[in-house]
Design goal:
By secondary structure, the protein is of the alpha+beta class. The protein folds into two domains: about 90 residues, 3-Layer(bba) Sandwich (FAD/NAD(P)-binding domain); about 180 residues, 2-Layer Sandwich (D-Amino Acid Oxidase, Chain A, domain 2). Helix content is about 25%, strand content about 35%. The protein is built from eight helices and 17 strands. Strands 5-4-13-14-15-12-16-17 form an eight-stranded mixed sheet, covered by helices on one side. The protein has a four-stranded parallel sheet with strand order 7-2-1-11. The chain has a three-stranded antiparallel sheet with strand order 8-9-10.
Amino acid sequence: MEKSWRKGRRVAIVGGGPGGISAAIAFRTAGYDVKVFERSAKPRPLGGAVMISTPVMEILRSYDIDIVNNFASQTVTNFANHKGKPRVSLPFVKELELASGIPGWHYGILRSTTCDKMMEVLNAKAPDTIVGNHALESYEETETGVTLHFTDAKNVEADLLVGADGIRSAVSKQAFGEPDLLHVGLRVWLAWCEDVPGVDRDNGWIHHSRNVQASYFPMKHEGKPGFEWWIVERSGPNATQPTDVEAHMRNLPRPLSTLRDFAFDHTGILQKFVEKDYRATVSRILRALPELHVG
């Protein structure tokens, strides 16, 4: 590591998620020596589909990632009540479109796809950047930089430390103390599916009732069209976890459940459900349900 670890240019990033990988690309592009220390053997992005806004798209494009073929485009965001009555449509910001050269403002893609594309960029710049099986135990600031102490691994000297290690960040905990996470009373169900014939791909919808939000947006996965779906419902730290996911989804008030029924009724359409518990402003995956193929 010494040959590519020049004193005064050494940036140690803890955490190999999207934020850590993106930071590594940016620092490498600026001429710094970068190492990303990941707790696991290799980065494993968590979560399902995500909505990416125009500023993030501009960053990805600056990394020479093909945003045209990898992402859905020009999706209009619409809000409706639980009876399906439209409330408002959010127009595109023409000034932003002209300034960025990117039509629309929200793009859907799987989180894993985004990470894979960034990893391709990082590996092309420096294939030895990711250092797996390195769980940070603590760090120590010195007169000449910072020393990283790892569990079951040698110490590493660096000039700059970047903490990108998630909701229970070891870096953040040492710098700022316990995160004091709290439950905000929400449960989120996420899913993505293949293209659904007859469903408008130019519009995404967010339906609201008093206790439930049910939404879908067009997306792309490996260049192929599809949809991302999510349901946000009232919950609590002691709430009972549903044992029959399909029945729980179908029990939503219509039209909130209509699109979910369609997904369940088409064999092979539904790919994955992930249940999350939202704490503070970030989420932690609690349980990944087995892949569902319902005929």
